[in-house]
Amino acid sequence: MKINSNNISSLDLFRGMAGYGVAICHFYYYTYYLNDFQFYSIFFVEFFFILSGFVLYPQLKKVYLDKKNIKVFYYRRWFRTIPPYIVALACYSILFGKFDNDTLKYLFFVQKVFDNFINFDYFSVAWSLSVEEFFYLIFPFFLLIFNKNRFLNILFLFILVVYILKISYFFNDVDKEFYRIGTFLRLDSIAFGVLARVYFDKIKNNTINVLLALLISISMYYFFMNLHELKNSELFLFIFLIQIFSINMIIIFVNFNNLIKNKLLTGFFSLLSKQTYSIYLFHLIIIHFFNSNTFLMNSNFIFIYYLISIFIFSSLFYYLFEKVIIENRPSYNK
Length: 334
Fold this sequence. Notes:
This protein is mainly α. The protein has one domain (5-326). It has 14 helices and no strands. Helix 2 runs parallel beside helix 5 (126-145), helix 2 packs across helix 8 (187-198) and helix 6 runs antiparallel to helix 8 (187-198).
């Protein structure tokens, strides 16, 4: 099955579900202080990581085949991710009155490079964006340095390096949360997405993936129920299970793509996909606004208002800001 990521409506839906999933989980966590929803959001963020690697593979292969493409790769990734990020960072900094060293660390995506590296994590969702940006920065250099090796060998080497770093943290006295959100400790998630794309033809059996997803869900129940008490080694296994589960979900969604033939649905799923980056960046600001408004907090329809707000805001932000930049990105030579 030949995959063209631009034409997979089911992956647009998957991305949209991940974006809205994080936004909804954080709404219930920050508005009603339901701690379980903070943990549910872990799954949706992992979906983002795996999906990012899955759709990024063709561009990484271009870099591997021709080192001149690395410049285009960086331009395309940075044009897509950094301008909206800077706008969001400015908004969070204004909201919290923070323009200091922490702001600079956010600006250069290094706030989670070390444990307790910032004083006040006022742009908390940015940790995953740091993982993305450092993967974009580092992995292409692996492709250039080890170019005489097969692409797969380079990918496995990259994952091995990350795993060695992860295991070394078993013996360090670091905050357990850092093990989940530390920038260099999570680079393997995107690499697993790339690996899933490479091996797609060998792992695309839908029945096996559905059964495996169910089995992993049962296995994760123990970890999920004891998440507060997990040791670093157990958290390591829990994250690995979520990564495999995310791969299963992507394969399942890709296999169901042929069932989506309605143009209205494909257009709607495409819109959801386009909204996700701005939803992820700005949803905490919208939640802060809702929580500061007495009328909204007392309304029985606050959740509906919230969904409508993020839908309208993210749509406008994409078409008025993101789309303009995306359309001016350089293209790879054919």
